[in-house]
Amino acid sequence: ADLLAQAEHDERAWPVLITVGEAVGDAVQDALARQLADLPRRAVAQAALAHGAWAVADDAEKAVELAGRLAPEHLELYVRDAARHLDGVAAAGAVFLGGTPETLGDYVVGPSHVLPTGGAARFSGPLNVSAFRTRMSVLGAPPDGPGPLGEVAVRLARLEGLEGHARAAALRAR
Question: Is 74 a catalytic residue?
């Protein structure tokens, strides 16, 4: 059902199932066929499923590792003691534990449904309040200068051929 919930979004959606053993995958394939029969957006879902994927992993840890490498927008850990596997997820926009349907995240719970797609969870997270705030770095050296760090900055600047940078650091390093 959750695969169809994703597949009916867009023909270009990429629903992926990772199972431990083929029996679960076979049961899911049967359920997909039954549920597709009267799905109003069946054509869209079928198109998405056509380029989706099904992989079989050796165990739950390998399945979670593979899923995390995909960095999906939504990841449902439908395994016993799902929270125990959360640390094994490298990246995902939103993780749904156990039998928590992805639809809850779409409509009812969670801080944001604006999630990274296309593997972008590898370097970005869900939209949140920090996206609307500016951030800045603040650096400060002691009043008597940056000490040894200033000399390191001088050397690095000269290695890059930026003598003006080197001189600015050298003046303060003295």
Answer: yes
